[in-house]
Amino acid sequence: MANARLGVYLSSLSWVGLLLTSGAITVGEQRAIAATPPTSMEQVTSVSQLTDVKPTDWAFQALQSLVERYGCIVGYPDKTYRGNRAITRYEFAAGLNACLDKIQELLAAATADFVKKEDLETVKRLQEEFAAELASLRGRVEGLEVRTATLEKQQFSTTTKLSGEVIMSRSDALGGENILGFGRVPANVDNASNAVFQNRIRLNLETSFSGKDLLLTRLEAGNAIPTLASGGVTGGANSAYLLFANEGRLAYDNSNVALTNNSVTLGQLSYRFPLGKSTTITVFGAGGDHFDYAATLSPYLDDNDGGNGALSRFGQFNPIYRIGGSGAGVGVSFRLGESIRLDAGYLANRANDPSAEAGLFNGNYSALAQLSFQASERFGLGFTYVNAYNNANEFRYGGLGTATGSFLGNLLVGAQSFVPAFPPRQPIASNSFGVEGYFKLSDRIVLSGWGTYTRAEFLGGAGGKADIWSYAGAVLFPDLIRRGSVAGIIAGAEPTLKGIELGGRQRGIQDRNDSLHIEAFYRLRWNDNVSLTPGIIWLPALNQRSNNDDVLIGVMRTTFTF
User: What 8-state DSSP symbol labels residue 407?
Assistant: First the structure.
C-alpha cells in the first residue's frame, strides 16, 4: 500500500516535470500571462463531468486515470477541460495544487515504512534525469529578463509603433500619337513620354493612449510624376506638371512640383477614438479624405491610395469619396446594429488659411452622409451624398494635384477653350449622389461596382449648371494561383462632363464621350511583406474624345510593407 501511495507521489512529480520540459508554457506566453487574470477552476470527480472530453479522444484514458484514481484534475466552471490549447501559469498552478493536496493526504496517512531506500534512489534518479532541462529553463528565464530590460531601455516609445510602405514602380505610356490635350491643343503622347522608374514611401507613426484610440502621423516622400505628363510645368504658387490628360492616374502619383523628387511631407495627421460602443470619431488635422473614415464597399481594390489595391486612383473606389479631399475636419461612423452603418463627415481643404474665402467654414468644404448595408461579408450596398463648395477653378474629385477624371469632368477653367474661358472661372456649389456595392459569388469570385452623378452650380456672373457622370464595374478573383493574391478587371468611365448650362441656355461640349477606363492587374502576394503587381490601363477616349488615339499605360508595381 505504501509503495502504491509513493507511486502516486512519483507520478505527480513526473507529470509536473513533463509539463515543465514539454514547452507547454512558452516564453511568449509567460509575457502575456503576466497581465492575465486568474481563471476559476473546479475539482472534478469523474471524467464524464468534462463536456468537451470524449471517449474517442487520444488522451481519454490518461484523463480518466488522473480524475478517478488520483483526483488530480480540475476543470473550468462551464464543465470544459479545453485540452487542445497550451496552459497558462494560473491553470498550471491550479492543477499542481490539486496534486499537492493529494500528496499531503498521502503523507498524512503514511506509515513508518512508507519511505524506503530504493524509493529515495528513484527520486534521486528523477532529479538527475531532469537536471539539464531545469537548468536550461532557468537560463532561458534569466536571458529573457536581460532582453526585457534592454528593450525597455532602448524602445522607441511605449505608446507608438512604426509601420510603412515602399512602392517601386516601372511604367510607360504607349500610343496616343494623335490626340487633343488640355484646351484641345494637338499633342503626341507616344513621342513625348518615356518609360520611368518611380517610388513613393509612407511611414506611419501609430500612437495609442488607451488601446482603443489611434493617433496617426503619416510622413510621405515620392517622385511619381503622372505618366501622361508632358514635361513642362505650370506657373504660379501651386505649380504642377502639365498633363496630356488627367485620366489613368496611378494611385500614388502626384502632379504637384512641390511633392516630387522625394521631398518629405506630412501626408496625414488624424486622431480616431470610440464614443460609446457604436460610434467612432476621426478628427483630421491635415490630409483627411472621406475614404479614410467612410466605408467604400470596394473590397480588394481600396488600399487608401496605397500599393496593394488597384493600380489606378480611379480603380480603387467611387470617386465621390474624393470630392474636397486632403483637408482638415471630422468624420463620424455610427453602427445601427450588426448590418447597418451611418457615416458622416465634414472636410475643408484650406482650413489652415485665415484669408477671405478660406478657413474652416468660409472656403472650400465637402460634407458627406452615407448609409450602408452589410448583412454579411458576401454582400454590401451603400448610398452616398456629398454637398460641397469650391472657389473658382478649385473643384476636384481629389486633392490638388491628385484629381480623378477628365479635365472637363473636374471643371478646369480652359479645359475646352480659353476665350472665353470654358468652363468659366466661377465658384461652384455641388451636390453629388452615389451608389456602390459588392457581391461575393464565391470565395474566389467577387463583383463590385459604383456610380455617381454630380450636379454642379456656377455661382456668380450669369450662373449656370453642369452635369458630371461616373460609373464602373469590376470582377475580382481572390487567391488566384497563390493565397493572398488577387486578379482584377475594372471597366467604367472616369468623371465626365456630359452637359453644361450657362446664362440660362445649354452650351455645346465639343468632346463629350465617356472617359472610358479599362484596367486589368494581377497582384502576386510573394509573402506577407512583398507583392508584385503587373497590369495595364487602356484609355480609348482620352479627354472625353473617342477620336483621340487609344493610350495604353503598362505598369509593374512592387510593394514592400512593414
Answer: T
* Per-residue confidence (pLDDT) for residue 5, from 0 to 100: 40
Strand partners, 265: 220
Give Cα 129 to chain centroid, integer Å. 52
Sign (positive or negative) of CA dihedral 247, 252, 258, 261: negative
H or E element: which one contains 127?
helix 117-129
Neighbours of 322 (CB within 10 A): 27
Provide CB contacts within 8 A for 288, sequence distance 6+: 268, 270, 282, 325, 326, 327, 328, 329, 331, 347
Cα-based angle 554, 557, 560 (whole degrees, multiple of 5): 180
For residue 2, give the nearest of 100, 113, 101 by alpha carbon: 113
Please enumerate in sequence order all residues whose Cβ is within 8 A of that of 123, keeping only pairs 6 or more positions apart, or say none.
10, 13
Cell 472534478, residue?
A: 44
Give the number of other CB atoms < 10 A from CB of residue 289. 26
- β-strand pairing of 241-243 with 229-233: antiparallel
Q: Where are the domains of the chain?
A: 2-154, 160-561
Burial state string for 163-202 with b = 16 or more CB within 10 A and e = fewer than 16: eebbbebebebebbeebbbbebeebebeeebeeeebebbb
**Count of CB atoms situated within 10 Å of the CB of 562:** 11
Neighbours of 1 (CB within 10 A): 8
Report pLDDT for 20.
36
Residue whose cell numbers read 484514481 = 69
Q: Which residues contact 398 (CB under 8 A, 6 or more apart)?
A: 313, 319, 322, 325, 326, 404
Give pLDDT tens digits for 185-230. 999 998 888 899 999 999 999 999 999 999 999 999 999 999 998 8
Q: Under 8 Å CB-to-CB from 529, ≥6 apart: which residues?
A: 560, 561, 562
Stretches in the chain below the pLDDT threshold 50? 1-40, 112
| 3-state class (DSSP) for residue 528 | coil
What CATH number was assigned to the domain covering residues 160-561?
A: 2.40.160.10
Helix axes 89-108, 2-21, angle to 10 degrees: 170
Instruction: Give the C-alpha separation, 227 to 253, whole Å.
Output: 8
Residue 545 CA to residue 512 CA, distance in Å, equals 7
**CA trace torsion 222, 227, 228, 233 (10° rounding):** 30
Distance CA 222, CA 164 (A): 13
Return the closest-CA partner of residue 259 out of 287, 291, 279, 282: 287
Q: pLDDT by residue (tens digit) across 277-332?
A: 999 999 999 999 999 999 999 999 999 999 999 999 999 999 999 998 889 999 99
Residue appearing with cell numbers 515620392 = 222
Per the DSSP assignment, residues forming a β-bridge with 105 are none
**Alpha carbons within 13 A on the beta-carbon side of 335:** 12
Overall pTM surpassing 0.85 (yes/no): no
